[in-house]
Amino acid sequence: TEELLRKTEKLNVAGQLAAGIAHEIRNPLTALKGFAKLMCTANEENKQRYYHIMQEEFNRIELILGELLILAKPQVVDYRPHDPLAILDEVIQLLSTEAILNNVIIELKAITELPYVNCERNQLKQVFVNVIKNAIEAMPKGGGITIHVQKQGNSVVMDFIDQGQGIAEDRLPRIGEPFYTTKEKGTGLGLMVSFAIIEEHHGHISYQSKVGVGTTVHIKLPAVLP
Ligand code: ADP
Ligand code: MG
């Protein structure tokens, strides 16, 4: 019965996700259909306008599908020991322009001789990108992000601490729920994907937050023992 229960649970999650995807893609599609029809009879000036709106809607669909595709396993699942600091450095580099443009300073603080973690490199990179991007987006007036990396027992633990707007206590349970977003242009898929990846890595991710003070994202991953 346990196996059956698990399968039913999986079906439910799949069903919820399918409903969400259908809904999120139908909206831009409906808009696209309408504007395509208008295009047929529009004058040159309006055509330009409609074209730009359609472009936005296409981008929206592309963004949603792009995030969902990360969930699909990579062709070759290649778990290998990697230095978590090297991955973090790469991600910080990747987001440095965005950070500078938003007056955000990212600081990485780690112990020496940190153990490696067994991971699918690109997937873990994706998690760090999602978490740090959210931290940047939570600080529209700028601020700091501190990333602490340590060893704790047989695990590598990372804390991503921001000085952003924070998350109200009653909203914390919704974090990681598919399509839960408070942003005008958000998809609400980044953390669902990240939670799934961390789980797949036998790790743990949790959120701690205080409105007006900031948010701490805690990620724990099994260390590769020497
Ligand atoms: P998106 O970024 O597209 O909204 P996510 O899944 O990445 O989707 O995040 C879901 C929601 O969680 C965000 O819309 C935001 O409300 C909240 N959130 C996530 N990280 C933070 C953070 N560091 N500070 C404040 N709110 C956050
Ligand atoms: Mg996000």
Automatic annotation (TrEMBL):
Membrane-spanning segments: none
Domain Histidine kinase: residue ranges: 20-225
Protein's name in the database: histidine kinase
Q: Which residues of the full protein are shown?
A: 475 to 700 of 700
